[in-house]
Each structure stands twice: as C-alpha cells, then as structure tokens.
TrEMBL record:
Keyword Iron: yes
Domain called Cytochrome c: residue spans: 38-146, 187-293
UniProt keyword terms in alphabetical order: Heme, Iron, Metal-binding
One of the record's GO molecular function terms: electron transfer activity
InterPro entries per UniProt: Cyt_c-like_dom, Cyt_c-like_dom_sf, Cytochrome_c-type_DH
Name of the featured protein: Putative diheme cytochrome c-553
Organism of provenance: Salipiger mucosus DSM 16094
Signal peptide extent: none
Keyword 4Fe-4S: no
Highest taxon in the source lineage: Bacteria
Length: 299
C-alpha cells in the first residue's frame, strides 16, 4: 500500500509539472519589434480602430477626458466581473514603467510584465493578429496621452476562474493566430479583415462562445448573447443581416441604421471610433462583412 501511495504521489507530481509546463506563458520572439520606429500619428489611428479608450476611459468620461485611460469600467460575464485597468502612462498606477516589449506581450500575447496570463476579457486573441509596426506606432501614441493616478481595481472573479495559470490551458484551446476568413480576398476585403478580426475585434461580441468562453469560429459573426446578460448582439452574416455595403459604411460613420434608428449601448463607442477613421476603412469593413459566408461557417 505504501508503495502504491508513493507511486500515485509521484504520478501526481509529474502530472502537475507537465501541466505547469504546458500552461506557461509564450511571449513574443525577442526580435518582433526589432528595428521598428513608432510613429505617434499613425498610432493614433491604430488606437482609435482598436477601441482602446472605449474600454479604458473612466466611467462616465466624456469628450477629451476619454483619452485619460484611468480604467474602472466594469464588464460583467458569467465568469465574474472584469474591471478595466489604468493603462495611462502613469509610472505607478498605469503602464508608464513598462517597456515597449512589455506592452507588446500584453497586447499580442496576453502576458503581463511579471509573466502572468491576462484574462481574455482583454481581446488579445484578436490583437495577436496585429502587425508589429502597428504595435510600435500604438506604443508611440500611448506615450503622448495624459497620466492618471487612479489605482487599478482587482477583478471580481471567484474560484476556479481566479487561477491565472489556468488561463494558459484556455489559451491552448482557443488562442490561434490564423485569420478566421481565409482564401482569396481582394485588397479592400483584406483591409476589412484586418480591421474586423484584429484591431476592432468585432468577433468578441458578434460571435457565440462555448461553455469555457471560447469563440465558436464555425459560427463566426452570427450573433451572440450579450455578455452582460441583457439582450443579444445581432448577426452580421448573409440571410440574417441584409444591409447593403453603403448602409454598413454609413452606420459606422453616423450611427444611423437604414430605418433611421440610432446606435445605442456599447456599440455607440464603436461607431464613435469608426467615425474618426478614413472612409476607406469603413468601406473596407463593409466589403468584408458582405463577403461573409452564409451562416458564418468558414471553409
């Protein structure tokens, strides 16, 4: 019996070690940003398209105050409530003490400077597709923003979801960096794909999730329950969404639907961001949406 217990204990230690190894963070290659100079002007466009301020400005902030990334907004989910952190350049309460590589690993790999996994409430699974140059430009722009001395608040997440290392197992299942829509795309659709699947992370809301919170990419952009438990996020696929490309581009500029209804909820922030982008980008998103397959099923 003693020998059996010893064998079981050893097996448990080995399994725990293997699990610890498999769930280890996987940072970007050291040379990912090598030789890249960031351009703050271009970075402002990336910042806007990625919706950084939409989640990280303080609750109730308006106008220019939305560029003070003090955090504090609450995002409810079935796994708990996540609170957006302070990502201003403040060196104590924000990310002012981070290096550019720290920032890149957080945005594109979901890893904090201490090597811990970040929760995928932060859409790094989409940002992982970001071009390194865009990341360098975004970092340059972030340095121009005002500091905020508001401390970040802890997430309200209970056991077992508060085990950060377990996020590494989640990443093994869901953290792919390939494009969802593949095949032959023209230049406009390719730009639209980059905006929809990477920077604007549209799939995070418009695609259903499974029991572990992973996106069901076989039902890409077919609509989903609202994560806060109130209502649903509409589908964008043919058969369910019959707006023209012009309707889509105009909505992203003005917030008005073809029926003269107006945008509401968190989508209002998305429209505010897209209205600041070049018309070509809104048209590219429309082209991508109109090229989606029936039912969202990808080949």
């Amino acid at each position: 019996m003693r020998k059996l217990l010893g064998t079981v204990a050893l097996a448990g230690v080995v399994l725990a070690g293997v699990g610890w190894w498999l769930t280890a963070p996987e940072p970007l290659p050291d040379d990912t940003l090598s030789g890249l100079e960031g351009d703050a002007a271009r970075g402002e466009t990336v910042f806007t398209a990625a919706g950084c301020a939409s989640c990280h400005h303080a609750p109730e902030a308006e106008g220019d105050d939305k560029r003070v990334l003090a955090g504090g907004q609450r995002f409810a989910s079935e796994f708990g409530t996540f609170l957006a952190p302070n990502i201003s350049p403040d060196p104590e309460h924000g990310i002012g003490a981070w290096s550019r590589d720290d920032f890149a690993n957080a945005v594109m790999r979901g890893i904090d400077p201490g090597g811990a996994h970040l929760y995928p409430a932060f859409p790094y699974t989409a940002y992982a597709r970001m071009e390194p140059q865009d990341l360098a430009d975004l970092w340059a722009f972030m340095q121009t923003l005002p500091e905020a001395d508001t401390p970040s608040q802890p997430h309200e997440v209970g056991f077992p979801f508060n085990i950060r290392r377990a996020v590494g197992g989640w990443k093994m299942l869901y953290f792919g960096r390939d494009w969802v829509m593949s095949g032959d795309l023209d230049p406009q659709e390719t730009r639209g794909r980059y905006l929809v699947e990477a920077l604007a992370h549209c799939g995070e809301c418009h695609t259903p999730r499974d029991a572990l919170g992973g996106l069901d990419t076989s039902a890409w952009l077919t609509g989903a329950p609202n994560p806060n438990g109130s209502g649903t996020i509409p589908p964008l696929t043919p058969g369910e969404f019959d707006w023209s490309a012009g309707d889509i581009a105009y909505y992203l500029e003005s917030g008005f639907t073809p029926d003269y209804d107006s945008v509401g909820g968190h989508m209002a922030e998305v429209v505010d961001n897209f209205s600041k982008l070049p018309a070509e980008d809104r048209e590219a998103v429309a082209a991508y949406v109109k090229s989606l397959p029936e039912g969202g099923a990808m080949e």
